[in-house]
Amino acid sequence: MWPVEKTFLLGIDAGTSVIKSVIFDLEGNERWIASARTEVLSPVVGWAEQDMLAVWQAVEQVVARVMAESQLPPHQIAAVGITGQGDGTWLIGRDGEPAYHAIIWLDGRGGELAERWLSEGLSQRLFALTGTLPNTSNQSVQLCWLAQHRPDILDRSQVAVHAKDWVFYKMTGQLCSDESDVSFTFFDVRRRAYSDEVFELLGLQAWRHLMPIVRPCHQNLAPIRREVAERMGLAPDTPVASGPLDVTATALGVGALDAGDTVSILGTAGIHEMVLDRPDTDPPNVGYTMCYPLTDRWLRMVPTMTGTVSLDWFIQQFCQEDANLARQRGVDLYHVLEEAMSQIPPGSGGIIYHPYICPGGERGPFMKPSARAQFFGLSNAHTRHHLLRAVYEGVALSVRDCYLHMPANPTAVRLAGGGARSPFWVQMLADVTGTPMQLFAGSEFGARGAAINAAVAVGLFADYREAVRRMVCPASEFHPHPQRAAYYADIHRLFQQVYRAVWDAWDELARLQRTAEQSGRCD
Fold first, then answer.
1. CA pair distance 12, 59, nearest whole angstrom
2. pLDDT digit string (tens) for 433-466?
3. Which residue, among 54, 244, 86, 51, has the nearest Cα to 163 in the 3D structure?
4. C-alpha distances in angstroms, 459 versus 7, 31, 159, 321, 467?
5. C-alpha distances out from residue 515 to 45, 131, 216, 299, 315, Å
6. Which residue segments constitute the domains of the chain, with CATH numbers given?
């Protein structure tokens, strides 16, 4: 038996913009946290890449820092769990070094390819096999783009993995992945195994050898390399478990185990997922179907491309005056902003915002690479605070849009991500969706899910259910206000009506933009 009173777990979350390292005790308390920002590169408009070595260096730094801050003897870390951003293509060369920058989930270079697959019916055939409708985030689209435009990169690669797999490889020397990260790209999710038919449909048979070995999350375990352990301040025999990917780890980190349990993550992306006891792919041609760490569970996920990004963009561009006021008052900027927005009634004075601000368009509940953000209903009576409230509401309306495409109506939603830290926004989400929002103790639920998986992998807990009972604690619940919920239901119908009305106009705008760029008229 492990000496429980002296045992801790370390969770690593290799996110898109921030790498976090969190030490938990066995009651799930976040005892020490360290983080470091990472850079998203855009060498071409619409592309999104990351330097794989820079990501690894950030992981080493945050683990070393959290261990130094904790002052724990290294042997008191019972296990390390790794999670990270999903989707994307992280290519490792034959020399064990990066073969190219990581192409991440925000990348939009495969937009025309994804649109063609959809119009030709290929996407629907792939959905029937994998339970996932291809979009620009997926490794399948990105590998096809590389095969067409940069086959030399694939020629010098030995394996195509994901973010957490890269970190696991650098920590342990193991080249592999887990079921959660691979399941929605090339898997037959019913058999929880690669599908040869998928590779044939995509014309990727020549690159089939790039696929890594895949294991269930709790079996994806290896000891840390001695030289890495020394740099990180860990014991040389520390076991490391890889998986699940961040959205799945977060669902585990807020205790979602049973069919119907629903989770929303309001982070860089908006992730909305429901636990299933069978791989249910209704409604068809929407979202992702993914393997869950419990081998008799799956996740149905309807993800948006962006969550808090719209807020970040608007605040950075238009709220400098509010930032100055917050500094003068010595309070948090969001306190000032939400104080102002609370004076504006629901509906933002007649403004509707569609939050499709990512260069890759939208992927849930519809796949539309040309989709773009827009304000509808502006007049000169509106202030920036009306617009900002519309942004908050627009993201919330897109959440409701995603719930309507779930296999069942959620009875409550377990909330995580940066957006969950705002009581103002959480209440708005409850009102807009008409669904109770549940919060849990802590904030680093992806790292917590990775730590839970590591604890099960090394036998600290008998199974995931026992681990969740010990490490996940409910905190509070927000209930919808009936009148506001009824009003937002009407607003949501208009929200849908407007984006359907400009559906073809988005395509025309994208065509005009491409023409202008090719002719040099944008210089």
1. 8
2. 999 999 999 999 999 999 999 999 999 999 999 9
3. 86
4. 13, 22, 30, 53, 10
5. 15, 35, 47, 40, 32
6. 309-436+478-518 (3.30.420.40)
